[in-house]
Design brief:
This protein has about 375 residues and is α/β, with parallel strands linked by helices. The protein has one domain: Metal-dependent hydrolases (TIM Barrel), CATH 3.20.20. Helices cover about 30% and strands about 25% of the residues. It has nine helices and 22 strands. β16 and β17 form a beta hairpin. The chain is globular, with a radius of gyration of 19 Å.
Length: about 375
């Protein structure tokens, strides 16, 4: 199959040409009259708590598969079901559902779903001072709790606070197990955050949110995330969790190759409902996001494409740079090296957008979705 248009390359550049592919990309050729549609790699969302009425914390393997199909039709071709702070036995059930959904997807050749890349565990090893919308069930990353987390077979990414007792050793152990560690829900100082990066952390979870605030005399974890580093911050680009001016600041500090876009979306996204129980609390859609009764942000309601549009239209980054942040960088940080970029040999997970950034087609493994 062939697609012609404006191709977003892994370096953020845009070239007019043609992509040839079967299940993988076989050729990239210059074509002068290729048209004005944008050809982007399928988006990779590393933080999805739910969508379309499906809550990851309560979802069966079949429900996760249904969610995968919804996400694919938004242009997200790979994602990570994200479990929040809860009793360990509850998180273990989410891990098993995620593992089963992953195994079932590998046996299904219909290719009409976004690939599940493993579980992102956002807690319970987080700061009691930076819970955000999480319940106060946080634990220290040691002992039986850590051993049970290490044994979770779907675990591929974990958010934790590096200042907690035992956290640096936990980071080293998790990294040795090929789990990517992300610093988040944290009250870490600059030195504590940098120590987490030195121990092996490779990401920051939803930059600016549920973090020690930036201060010119106490720069804290945000300064560590904005500085050049081996760890790359993820950011919710809905214009609500992070003001567009701060999105511009983050992009100016870290650039195209130093940011990851995530949705952090919840079950209310993609529904006509305005209210849902999140954990033990009620969340409603107000002022462009999901919020608890006291106004605390409880997640976004955007798609990855919505986030890309906000970066292009409000932050004024190029569509090529936005594609790198929404696809190439998240795939790279978790080691999914055959995804997230348009290059020969990569998976043919592609999306076609109009010049106005409206979704026209989605291809997964070279197959167009109905």
């Amino acid at each position: 199959m062939k697609l012609s248009g404006l191709i977003a390359k892994p370096d953020g550049s845009i070239v007019r040409g043609q992509v040839s592919f079967a299940d993988r990309i076989t050729a990239l050729d210059a074509v002068n009259d290729a048209g004005d549609d944008h050809i982007l790699p399928g988006f990779v969302d590393l933080q999805v708590n739910g969508s379309h009425g499906i809550d990851v914390m309560n979802a069966s393997a079949d429900a996760l598969a249904a969610l995968s199909r919804h996400l694919a039709r938004e242009g997200t071709t790979a994602w990570m079901p994200t479990a929040v702070t809860a009793p360990i036995e509850k998180i273990e059930k989410v891990s098993e559902s995620t593992a089963t959904a992953f195994e079932n997807s590998n046996r299904d050749d219909s290719a009409d779903f976004a690939a599940i890349l493993g579980m992102h565990l956002e807690g319970p090893f987080i700061s009691p001072l930076r819970l955000g919308a999480h319940p106060p069930l946080n634990l220290e990353p040691s002992g039986d709790a850590l051993e049970r987390v290490l044994a979770m077979r779907a675990l591929r990414l974990i958010t934790l606070a590096p200042e907690l007792p035992g956290a640096l050793d936990a980071i080293r152990r998790l990294t040795a197990r090929d789990v990517v560690v992300s610093i988040g829900h944290t009250n870490a100082t600059l030195d504590e955050a940098n120590a987490g990066v030195d121990a092996g952390a490779r990401m920051f979870t939803h930059l600016f949110n549920a973090m020690r605030p930036l201060n010119h005399r106490d720069p804290g974890v945000i300064a560590a995330a904005l500085a050049p580093s081996r760890a790359i911050p993820a950011i919710i680009s809905d214009g609500v969790h992070v003001h567009p001016a701060m999105l511009r600041l983050a992009f100016g500090a870290r650039g195209r190759d130093g940011l990851i876009l995530v949705t952090d979306k919840v079950a209310l996204a993609g529904t006509s409902s305005s209210e849902k129980i999140v954990g033990r609390a009620r969340a409603t859609i107000r002022d462009g996001a999901a919020r608890l009764d006291d106004g605390t942000l409880a997640g976004s309601i955007i798609s990855m494409l919505d986030g890309v549009r906000i970066m292009v239209e409000t932050v004024h980054v190029s569509i090529g740079d936005a594609a790198v942040m929404a696809a190439t960088n998240p795939a790279r940080v978790i080691g999914a090296n055959d995804r997230g970029s348009i290059r020969i040999g990569a998976r043919a997970d592609l999306i076609l957008l109009s010049r106005a950034l409206q979704l026209k087609s989605v291809f997964i493994g070279g197959r167009e979705l109905n």
